[in-house]
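Incident review: delayed structure delivery

Summary: a single-chain prediction request sat in the queue longer than the usual turnaround. Root cause was a stuck worker, restarted by the on-call engineer. No data loss occurred. The affected request and its eventual output are reproduced below so the record is complete for anyone auditing the incident later.

Affected input:
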Amino acid sequence: MRTVLRNLLLPLGAAAALALASGCVNVEVASSGGADSIVVENSGCYLFYCIPLFSGDPDYPNQQVCSWFTNTVKLDTNMRLLNEEAKDLGAHGVRNVASRYISEPIIFLLLKREVLQTSAELVR
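Output delivered after worker restart:
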């Protein structure tokens, strides 16, 4: 009985730990060859693949702060953060905007993690 519980609870505990570490918003600025670019990454975790448990809180980027039971993993959220960062850096706008969406199961049919990455070059 203990072996069954350990074999069942160990993967569930590991999945829960991974899920709890996955909800965040990161905004990074990089310079390469005289061009500056911004990358925004937002992630969240979903129960039964559709009910948001938590996702990154766009009001607190680069901190491990979650929005509970809210889906913020959306393109408009990433674009807002991207434009705010560009404005803070004194840019006139952005160009070459690209996004990448990743959806990965944590526990099949139970938990899913979504990640949305959006990047752009700054126009000075």
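Verification: The helical segments are 2-20, 75-88.
Action items: add queue-age alerting; document worker restart procedure.
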